[in-house]
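Sequence in, structure out.
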Amino acid sequence: MKVFLGWSGETSHNVALALSDWLPKVIQAIRPFVSSEDIAKGARWSLVIAKELQASTFGIICVTKENSESAWINFEAGALSREIEASLVTPFLFNLREAEIEGPLKQFQVVINEKSDILKLLTSINNKQGENRLEEANLKSTFEMWWPTLNEKLQGIQQKVGKTPARQTREMPEMVEELLELARMQQREMAKLLDMSSELDQPRFMRQMSQSEQVGKINGGQRLRTLRETLGYRMRDVELASNQIAQRFENEEFAIPPSRLHDIETGGIIPSVLRLYSLAAIYRRDYGELLSFYGLAVDGISAAASGTPVPPLAVGETPPHEEKK
């Protein structure tokens, strides 16, 4: 039985590793998966994770005070719930109260770091084994035998966290940085407007884009902004989550800094295919749905292709784009 353990941040990672080592001791049929430990170097992250998600029967998301507002941890929870029944995805709260949970994580039944709750978690996992599940009495006796091992590890992690200064959710420097970024974006927008006004009398400028096309771009960005705000994400959250995706793919084109997101949402800038991919992953939406924000449909590609036939090349003829090479 495959159990997927999601994490984000050092403390969350340590908790995931502790659970990964301990769970098979109680229920031997469990095969835990922790991404940092089980993905070989050089493997394509997206393919490995997708394969593991599809093979998983249960998902545990390790949530701490440091990552509870992270867009990435919410993305992993959403990805799990798409592959596994939502009732089988459990946020494990470490050094965190249920009342402190906000956003999409609130839809899941959480488990807190207490002996009785962890036993309930093991019972839920055991029940998914069907005919191979352990007898309740055997499960409880095995749990009691191995509980001190997990408890000691979690207490050690707790002590380590206690020696580390707690992360403040919204420090003043961060707020000042965000205000400065917004001010810079406004300056850039003003510069664009000045450049545009100097060219208004030139016919080529008027032909660049029809009014309906410009409105379509802006409306698409507005819908992306509405979606982000509905999910409760800040621009900073999107930046951090997209940086994670860029690191996984080793391609910075997946990253979305706040200035670019602002241009996409309010400036009529259409996101690249890679950045739209990041937004679809972070917002847990189908890629085609975000394309539809700009009036495009994936199933319309075939129709568009049939209306623009490309003449076949003669035998030995060089494609036009290669003639100058």
